[in-house]
Amino acid sequence: MSAHIPILAIAVPLLGGFAVPLLAKLHKGLRDAWALLVVLFVGACVGYVAVHVFTQGLWVYVLGARHPQETLAPGGFPIRIMLVVDGMSAFMGVIAGLLALVAFPFALRFLPEEEGKSLALTLGLLLLAGILGMAYTGDLFNFFVFLEVTSIAACALIGFRTWTSRAPEAAFKTMLLYSLSGLLFLLAVAFLYGEYGALNLAYLARELRGTFVDRLALGLFLAALLMKAAAAPVHFWAPDAYGEVPAAKALLLVVNTQVSLYGLWRVLFTLYGGLWDAGVGWLVVALGLLTMVVAAFMALVQTDLGRLVAYGAVSQIGYMMLGVGVGLVSLAGRPEYGLVALKGGVFHMLNDALTVGLLFLCVGAVEWTKGTRDLRELGGLGHGLPEVALCFLLAGLALAGLPPLNGFASKILIYQGSFRLSPILTAVAVLASILLLAVFARAFQGAFLGPKAEVPNRVPGVFLLSMAVLAVGLLVLGLVPGFFLEGVVTPAAEALWRGRALYLAAVLGG
Amino acid sequence: MTVVVRTIARLLFPVALAFGGYVIMHGHLTPGGGFQGGAVAASALAMVLVAFGPSRLKDKKGLLSALESLGGTAFVVLGFLGLGVTFFANVLAGSHGLFGRPVPYGPNPGDLNTAGTLPLMNWAVGFKVLAGLGAVVLLFALFGGEDDR
Prior knowledge:
The complex is a heterodimer of chains A (510) and B (149).
Chain A: H1 5-26, H2 28-56, E1 59-62, E2 82-85, H3 87-110, H4 117-136, H5 140-158, H6 166-196, H7 201-207, H8 212-228, H9 237-244, H10 247-271, H11 278-300, H12 305-329, H13 336-370, H14 381-384, H15 386-400, H16 406-421, H17 423-448, H18 461-479, H19 481-497, H20 500-508
Antiparallel strand pairs in A: 1-2
Chain B: H1 3-25, H2 34-52, H3 61-81, H4 117-143
């Protein structure tokens, strides 16, 4: 059975999602237990895959073949759909599994039964399946299919509270951007398919010649994936979406944007890695700087706690783009600082997932107790909810990149790497971090400090458990970053930095 | 709607459903398949909605939702059938069991009893699309205002 674990990580949540409405008709408790069991199984699967990939190298799994490693059909052509899990894919899978493990217990308690809990659980599991599919697949069309799966599930979750006025609007906006992104991606895949007659990522990576059509396709890939990753100037759907989605499910949306970034790294480093162009790297760097500054300024003026955190989340996308972009600019000469920046960018994906996840859980807990997220009405919650206040403070400081928290560990790598390329990059990044510190100081003061406020509902224990897991993660990653940097981040960054040849060899042989 | 429309709808409903089933069943031999056949069958539901109004089908929402989940579950379970080899491996093809006859070579009218798990997957997709599209048009009709008969 262990040979099939990568596909089980995708197929089991898919099956779990479809089975949830059926089980809900039998018994509500059975449905909740089933959803938890599925998420636990997925967590175990992605963990196993990660350990296997980090210790033994790439893991290829071919669907429908005579045996799982038969990548080439007779004639030496990769025709089947396959999963190719390298260090970066496994790393992305771990992030998705971790946040799902935290989000689902929280969601089971958070979602009210009369608001269609079964549907939200179904959509959440489908979103998880789509995310893992995007992370593990080695086929461009398959990637597009999973991109659409995540788009549809995410839009439905965003518009979930149909009775409010803002949720359908946010869902409509998001759907517009997601469909546009999906269509651009499909067009790019169609260009490459028309030119080379293949959809397999490794095969295309070997065949790409850098024609005009290839460059056009690269532009479309960039536009599509940046749109879905909420990079400026197409970030405007994200605050609405993060703000309106039920709080626990916002964690899955965070992973959804990250996996789109992962797709971009895959396209830039693996698919187009043979046709290196510093201009593309500079474009990613420039958009990353724009994203972090624009989002930090926008966060300053928000009065809704959910939207404020959402803008904070968008600004972190900019840091990942800066780190990996610097790596991409310096890919040709492969100087030391390029790898440092790349490691920082990749490490920041994990840190951002934990930090922003914790912030959204805090927002959810505040909303659960007070029924509002408006900073003008909130205040003084620190007396009644000290645990939530502490978690919010920790996560806010981590997001702003203060030591000894995890945000500092990855941001210092990004600063170091980008400084060697150009000190201006670092200056802008530090400026954005200072702005974020101001943002979260203000948000903390507005929501938790001040005269003691009434707290009508207690925070359930499972909320605190989910938050505690993430808070401990924040501290551990900040205090002993070296362990995770060596064990988890370096294999992922190396997979982008030097792993292209291995990726191609694993699929095409030789 | 008028009595002409309702009579014709009553006559055509089983025919449209049967045609949808035909398209699904021959999905592995002729153009079409699960999605197309499911859409044809759902158009039969849409016709009933137009002719008789949504009140006839109002209480069928639960059934459609269950059918949709069943279709999705069945599709993934069929994928799991192949796990002895690989996920989605076609274990029934060439097994001389259900849909297990080897595909004949050369020009032939097409043998329905071939292609292994593919026809079963077509049925799963067909039911999912029938239920999903049916539920969508039903919801549109229910929220569409007055039932004008």
